[in-house]
Amino acid sequence: MNIAANPVVEADQTVYLKDYQKPSFTVESIDLDISVYDDHTRVTSTLKMQRQTDGELILLGRDLELKSISLNGKKLTESEYGLDEEQLTIAQAPDQVTITTEVIIHPETNTMLEGLYKAGDLYVTQNEPEGFRKITFYPDRPDVLSVFTTRVEADKKYPVLLANGNLLETGEAENNRHYAIWQDPTKKPSYLFACVVGDLAVLKDRYTTSEGRDVALEIYAIEKDIPKCHIAMQALKHSMQWDEEHYGRAYDLDNYMIVAVSQFNMGAMENKGLNIFNTSCVLADEEYTTDAAIMRVQSVIAHEYFHNWTGNRITCRDWFQLCLKEGLTVFRDQSFSEDLQSSAVQRIDDVAVLKAHQFPEDSGPLSHPPRPDHFVEINNFYTATVYEKGAEINRMMSTLLGKEKFRKGTDEYFRRHDGQAVTVEDWVAALTAGSGVDLSAFLKWYNQPGTPKLEAKGEYDASTQSYRLSFKQSLKAHSKYPDLKAVPIPVALALFNAKTGEQYTLQSDALFENNVKDGVYLFDQDEASITFTGVTEKPVVSLLRNFSAPVNLEFNYSDEELAFLLRYETSGFNQWQATQTLLERILLDGHDANVYIDAVKQTLPDVIVKDPLLASRLFDVPTEGYLGSRVDENYQPAVIHEDRESLLDTLARGLGDFCKETYLSLDPDTQKDFSQAMGVRALKNIMLGFIARQGDTSVFDLAYSQYQTTENMSERLGALRVLVWNDAPQAQEVLQDFYNRFKDEALSLDQWFMVQAAHPNATETTIKHLISHTDYDLGTPNRIRAVSGGLNANPVNTWSFGVDHFLDLAKFLDEKNPIVGSRLLQVLTRWYTLAEPQRSEVKQKLEALKAQVKSKNVSETLNSMLSV
Ligand code: ARG
Ligand code: ZN
């Protein structure tokens, strides 16, 4: 290997946004030749480059064995270039150069699942953000766009050879080998390059775009999984049409390929015309995957498809801008999904994810702005903050603008920046120019960390029939981002007549958008107030409707007012929001549970008929994990567990016969659509849980027969959970049966692992048993996540024997797969809130890990976690 000594001692590895510089060379075109052999892969690439600024010519490369390099046809000797572990540099390159390099790489031993790697019998790539430099020497940064021509060659035992773009040529090569040449006509950054070599079957379909382009659609998977690809295919066609209708964006190539792979670090990847998907995000089938997974498949398919415009045609200037493409694309896929199921429930689920993951992240040591201004390892910034808070910023702007103006803004964005690599500022400026509304203040949301606290107070004056709402906002101080400013907060609100339950028509000059009843007040000061007139009775105010801003609202509601909102609010989301506030008060502040029980009992029968999925969400008792994240000190997981258990018991008792009656009266097979059937299944499973709590042992027969008679995974799993988690006499039998049925179905088997790991009384032995099972595999992130995620469903377990489990994983993966290792370690982020002596014990273990890890991924996370 040819690696020159690296003179720079591992000093500070932090990269800063302020240091951004344009690349000194552009790449007009790249010709890649990738030849796969069993024990190595040879990559030859020829780059045509053109100088655009002064400076060295820099090609990034990592773990590459350089065989030869030539410049403008002349072989270079070792003294004519510099080479270290990160890059190859040529000090005085001419303005126009053609550089050819030949390297050897080892996908067959690549366990990091980054760059080109072998997953089982399949070779695939994952290049975002910095994987391409592990394939060949290249200016691997998103602001270098080029035309890629790729020749892929392999043994014929791998009949499928794919890369981005159009297939130009196929042919035979020596020694029973063959090749294919692909060319992608659109200029793209290297992180969007993909290639696939393997033996896969394919599901084909077609779509004609609004511009009349006939597109071949192909989903590749192993043969037996092809029947599980139909839902994804439908979702793909639906997404293509949805983007035409809602954003005026049509697809731009003649083919769109998706490849399913069982070993993948993340959900999926939007490579141009050749998406690569974790099987968990593309395979969907009622028999093998749950309703939730089916919904997720559709939203991830949409997400990756939508990236074609927001991410690929318009990409990021640098990785600090990641939320430019991710925040916008998540917002787009959430909007798409709101059309697929009960839109209230889609919003409920998105807000639940935000509050369960992003809010805790943003209140602890890993807190960062949606657009950070420094990082050590960019892979650590594919976070809930970048994705989910990023989406909320776009939602806020779209709420303020309304549909029409928002569309004018996005049209302007596509008009200005198609084919470019841009910044968050460019996006906000285009929205502003297109809509005619100045949105520049929203940049503060991108640049600041922390969840704002929004304190509101209401005062009714009967003599003037007016109601005054005053607001105050604040952000927790942050050592790395000291200069925090007030942000623009759109507060969607409504006033209800407390006597009649009717909604007032809002009268106030200060409303931003006032479409008769649904008002939005733009609060953008440290403090301000708004007065409503014509309020004839003391009102009940509903604030932050549809969760119009990602803030922590503090308003002194009485429990009765919250019960009132559950009853009279006009949208399902707002009803749910009232239940969540009520439940949080019961669980964290010791309020009486009866107000909630009575209100739910009153409201539910109606809701069950109209929207069973929404009905199921009204029973969302905040998880122990979420409740724990609301506690900033002296956190005792066991206390929260006890309190939550006792609330559930009270609820079960309070609901009485309602549970069994509801269970027996509902039938998913007679519902009008998938969303309703999914709701009925969810409700039935919840009721099973309550019946078990009531101590009614007939529940085991109900669950057992539900398990045996269904062909639907959500029903089967719901029944399995109740049996296993309650240690029913049938538990071992059904577990064994589940295993026998699904042992060759990886995604279903993940559920089998998860159910057992999530047993409330799981012990260290349970987990040891699972991770020494023959089907457990540390090379398959989905399997690791099944057990770890299951374990973490019970924070009492996470914070006892779970601590060592996660530390061991982080240590092991630090070397094998640091991206996943860093993620799993983050489960322990809130260690500092624990009550003593646990706090010090965990801290000591984290400190001890420092010396044992090497990767930038795990080290950066560990250092940040300990920096409280
Ligand atoms: N861009 C992908 C998406 O659609 C995610 C890629 C994540 N990759 C990573 N190395 N963290 O969201
Ligand atoms: Zn994305």
Quick recap:
With 868 residues, the protein is an alpha+beta fold.
Describe the structure.
Residues 559-866 form the Peptidase M1 alanyl aminopeptidase C-terminal domain. One of its GO terms (molecular function) is alanyl aminopeptidase activity. Its EC number is 3.4.11.2. It is an enzyme of class 3 (hydrolase). Belongs to the peptidase M1 family. It is a single chain. Strand 18, helix 1 and strand 19 (255-261) form a beta-alpha-beta unit. The model is unreliable at 1-10 (pLDDT under 50). Helix 4 (343-363) packs across helix 5, helix 16 (698-709) packs antiparallel against helix 17 (713-725) and helix 17 (713-725) runs parallel beside helix 19 (746-757). The protein is built from 26 helices and 32 strands. Helices cover 40% and strands 22% of the residues. It is globular, with a radius of gyration of 28 Å. The chain has a domain at 1-199: Immunoglobulin-like, CATH 2.60.40.1730. By secondary structure, it is of the alpha+beta class. It binds arginine (ARG) and zinc ion (ZN). Zinc ion is lined by residues 303, 307, 326, 329.
End-to-end Cα distance, whole Å, is: 42 Å
The coarse silhouette is globular
Can you list the ligands bound to this structure? Answer: arginine, zinc ion
Q: Total number of helical segments? A: 26
- Calculate the mean pLDDT score and round it: 96
Instruction: Specify Rg, calculated over alpha carbons.
Output: 28 Å
Question: Mind telling me the CATH class of the domain at 1-199?
Answer: Mainly Beta
How is the CATH topology of the domain at 1-199 named? Immunoglobulin-like
Domain Peptidase M1 membrane alanine aminopeptidase: 232-444
Family: Belongs to the peptidase M1 family.
GO biological process, one term: proteolysis
Cofactor: Zn(2+)
